[in-house]
Amino acid sequence: MPSSCKDIRTGLALCLQRSPCVLIDRHTPSECMADPELRKDLPPQCLSRMRSYAQCRRGIFDMRRRFRGNGPLSTGIYNEDYERLSSGDFDAKEELEKVVKKL
Q1: Contact 16, 29 (CB under 8 A)
Q2: How far apart are CA 18 and CA 52, in angstroms?
Q3: How many CB atoms neighbour CB 38 within 10 A?
Q4: CA distance 88 to 20
Q5: Fewer Cβ within 10 Å of end Cβ, the chain: N or C?
Q6: Phi-psi category of residue 88: left, alpha or beta, with phi > 0 → left and psi -120 to 50 → alpha
Q7: DSSP-H helix ranges across 1-103
Q8: How confident is the model over 28-34, as a mean pLDDT?
Q9: CB-based contacts of 5: which residues, under 8 Å, 6+ apart?
Q10: Residue 91: half-sphere exposure toward Cβ, Cα within 13 Å
Q11: Which of 27, 25, 10, 26 shows the shortest CA–CA distance to 74?
């Protein structure tokens, strides 16, 4: 994966893992993104991250952006949170409160 979209992808994964669709309803993040009924219940920041990730992926193949580049390289700002959530070492209520605070 190109490193210009890596932070956006990781941020999207974190947002989906903290969403009520995954934490409460126990769906997978891919089910929450693919099913229109489940997508309606996603927090607005997850939807905006989905849009920005799609734009970033489109920018990789856009020939007008080919020489300048798609964006900055990955900074790894979400790596620690992503590893913690991926390993299952988290409190679901605490993670859900983080999403609700951002709304």
Answers
A1: yes
A2: 18
A3: 16
A4: 16
A5: C
A6: left
A7: 6-17, 20-23, 29-34, 36-39, 44-61, 79-87, 92-102
A8: 92
A9: 53, 56, 57, 60, 70, 71
A10: 4
A11: 10
Asked whether the whole model's pTM tops 0.70, one would answer no
* Rounded CA separation 10/84 (Å): 12
Tell me, what amino acid is at 75? T
Identify the residue with better confidence: 42 or 97: 42
Q: Which two tokens stand for residue 17?
A: 């893992």
Tracing tokens 């020489």 back to the chain, one arrives at 67
The two three-digit tokens of residue 92, written as one number? 């679901």
Tokens coding 26: 């126990």
Tokens representing 59 are 């920018």
